[in-house]
Amino acid sequence: MINTHELKKRDLYLNKLIAFRDTEPVKVVTGIRRCGKSSLLKLMAEYLKGTGVEEAQIIEMNFESHAFNKMSADEFYHYVKDRVIPEKRMYLFFDELQRITDWEDAVNSFRVDFNCDIYITGSNAYLLSSEYSTYLSRRCVEIKMLPLSFGEFLYFHDFEVKESRSALGGMRTQVYDKNGERYELREVFDAYMRFGGMPGIADVGLDQEKAMVLLDGIYSTVIVRDILEREKRRGQKRITDPVLLRKIVLFLADNIGSNISVSSIGNTLVNEGLLEDGKRKGAPSAHTVQAYVNALLESYFYYDIKRFDIKGKEYLRTLGKYYIVDIGLRNYLLGFRNRDGGHAIENVVYFELLRRGYDVAIGKLDNTEVDFIATKMDEKLYVQVTESMVSEEGRRRELAPLQKINDNYEKIVLSLDTGLDASYDGIKSLNLINWLIEKT
Question: Taking a C-beta distance cutoff of 8 angstroms, is the pair 73, 46 a contact?
């Protein structure tokens, strides 16, 4: 059992659960395996105890545990019913609930039969697909959990950021570990870009060999439990070819942030010799590739992003992009070496925008592209991401699409090397690392 006193806080998500405490909707925490969902439920249970809820009012079940994973929905219902205290408000925590067949019938019965507040987690988006969520009469709220942000990475690895005055009179940011060793902020960011944000990395330390073992375990569990062993669902193509699945995983990892057509993936794999034709005649069909890509999206291993025509004000069906949920997993898949730094930092920015509550799209404007259009309520933000704004050519390339947009919403360029200018005609040039750790 997890020792809750050693759990690191994930306030971004815990505060969302607290905000929905004792409301009717079932609270559903979704996200890739091992991103911290189980720990979040533990943190919420500890929070409840701190507000006076008795331990007997809290029922916790992890369906990855052998004690529960063979339960039927009926056994599940009676297990909970036997522990409900009459006249008391009960708090029910169910981890990896998708492993129980017909779980939704039991959860709906809990809502009807008992005075309870329900929290569940799942590592597959099918948990909330239309077929299942209708059983809950749409009475659920989803909290989407991601691996650690760079700010959380600093906290989990016991780094403290301090500012001091530089020789030139400005402010300099440096980082100290728990032993008082001093590092440049860029050094620690480079570690984040290498190891990624899976919380378990903090337990093994920034050791490449141990990190590889941990990431291999996450990858294998996602591929086997959430994809290859997933139940046969109505209207869904079964994922049966582990070789094809891995090739698609590697292809998407190598092409994060690139415009990709699903119909072209199979042909590309064959043309580049990545798939042996052998028993296959030609490339796998676009329908097959789409089914495999959908399975990867459902398991939260990859996220897709659509294109938005800024002039036409509509989403386009053509060429979207894919980003991998954790940059450490990409390095595990492709090897720890410097590659494609621009798309790698773009990947990090995409997920940071999601953490900050934005809906994110790619912007198309004539024949140019804006990396991200981020919208939230009445707020809109146009974002370009690049490694450097030092060269004139690089500046011109990044600024041109933003300069074409004639509305008054904020426009920023995020880079690791901003050059000397802080803005260009109202377009802000911001240091990417400082932006990642700013308080929002």
Answer: no
- How big is the CA angle at 406 (ends 401 and 409), to the nearest 5 degrees? 90
Tell me what pLDDT residue 313 has.
Answer: 79
Residues in the chain, overall count: 440
Distance of alpha carbon 85 from alpha carbon 47, whole angstroms:
20
pLDDT tens digits, one per residue of 76-127 = 999 999 999 999 999 999 999 888 888 988 999 999 999 999 999 998 887 7
Matching residue, tokens 């294109």 = 307
Rounded-to-integer distance, Cα 329 and Cα 350, Å? 16
Q: HSE on the CB side for 54, CA within 13 Å?
A: 7
Tell me the domain boundaries of the chain. 4-144, 150-204, 340-440
The string of pLDDT tens digits covering residues 24-72 is: 999 999 999 999 999 999 999 999 999 999 999 999 999 999 999 889 9
Q: How far apart are CA 167 and CA 247, in angstroms?
A: 52
Cβ distance 264 to 211 under 8 Å? no
The CATH number given to 4-144 is 3.40.50.300
Nearest to 309 by CA among 410, 401, 426: 401
Q: Where does 78-221 show beta strands of DSSP type E?
A: 90-95, 116-122, 140-144, 160-165, 171-176, 182-184
Rounded (10°) angle between helices 11-19 and 37-50: 60
- Strand, helix or coil for residue 236: coil
Phi-psi region of 222 (alpha: psi -120 to 50; beta: other; left: phi over 0): alpha
Domain 340-440 - what CATH class? Answer: alpha beta
DSSP 282-305: SSPPHHHHHHHHHHHHHTTSEEEE
CA 254/CA 235 separation, integer angstroms? 30
Q: Which residues fall within 8 angstroms of residue 55, CB to CB, at 6 or more apart?
A: 49
* Structure confidence by residue, pLDDT tens digits, 297-350: 999 999 999 988 777 777 777 778 999 999 999 999 999 777 788 999 999 999
| CA–CA dist 221, 91 (Å, integer) | 29
The candidate with the shortest Cα–Cα distance to 324, out of 143, 198, 156, is 198
Q: How far apart are CA 55 and CA 335, in angstroms?
A: 46
